[in-house]
Amino acid sequence: MGKTKEIVIEQREAENLPAVLNEGFPVPTKPLSTIAIARTAKQRILATPTNTAYVKIKENFPYLESNYVDSSFTDIFPHYEVEILSSGVFQNYYVFFDVRVKAYITEDKYLQRVGTGSARIQVKTSAKEEFLKNGGTISPFDYVDFGNSRKSALTLAIKNAQERFGIGADITNRIILSKEETDRIREEFDRLLLLLDDPRDKNRYKEKWNSAKTPNDKLKILQTLNEITA
In the 3-class helix/strand/coil scheme, how is the chain assigned residue by residue? Predict the structure, then answer.
């Protein structure tokens, strides 16, 4: 007997997928190719700035809420499937999911990305205290609301796969700095700039610094200056 794959499907009906994907773009006089539709979808994703109202900061990095990512994703890809590739429990403490998201751009053509998500399993307080005091292991009988942990892990896996299509790419992996940290790296930049002998190099790095759009860009400039002035 063949192996049966567990599949979770969410479908959003669209009478004309190419027309939906090209919303806001000139309508071509002849049918678009699959590649052209995919490129148009990518353009729409990159042309839509992330709504910062749905951005949270965790350890100085921005984090998008799952419902916002899913809403943004389905605006671009109204018909998609989520296939569960694997799932399980890691060392009795975490539940994880690996998924593949297929975003259809025509009735039979799709783009796909994979994502992984995990969530800590909540356990009874008595079991946790016993574990911390005497060691041992946590058993499945000690779990509390295991279904909610599975749901959290699956939601995160889907979100991570959706983000790999480009959702939130304008803010993902950016470092968020406080005013004090921003002032500190500016002082470090000014210090390293004084170590450059050639005025042309100083002007070049000043221009780079002034045109840097994100803290990441400025930190890369600092790294370069540290290397060449060491």
Answer: CCCCCCEEEEECCCCCHHHHHCCCCCCCCCCCCHHHHHHHHHHHHHHCCCCHHHEEEECCEEEECHHHHHHHHHHHCCEEEEEEEEEEEECCCEEEEEEEEEEECCCCCEEEEEEEEEEECCECHHHHHHHHHHCCCCCHHHECCHHHHHHHHHHHHHHHHHHCCCCCCCCCCCCCCCHHHHHHHHHHHHHHHCCCCCHHHHHHHHHHHHHCCCHHHHHHHHHHHHHHHC
Q: Is residue 76 part of a domain?
A: yes
CA distance 30 to 22: 13
- In the chain, the number of structural domains is 2
Structural domain harbouring 111? 7-163
Give per-residue pLDDT as tens, 10-54: 333 333 444 444 444 444 445 556 677 777 887 888 777 888 788
The stretch 70-89 carries a mean pLDDT of: 92
| 147-195 confidence digits (pLDDT tens) | 899 999 999 999 999 998 888 877 765 556 667 777 888 888 898 889 8
Do 223 and 114 lie in a common domain? no
**Sheet with strand 110-120: strands edge to edge:** 7-11, 79-90, 94-104, 110-120
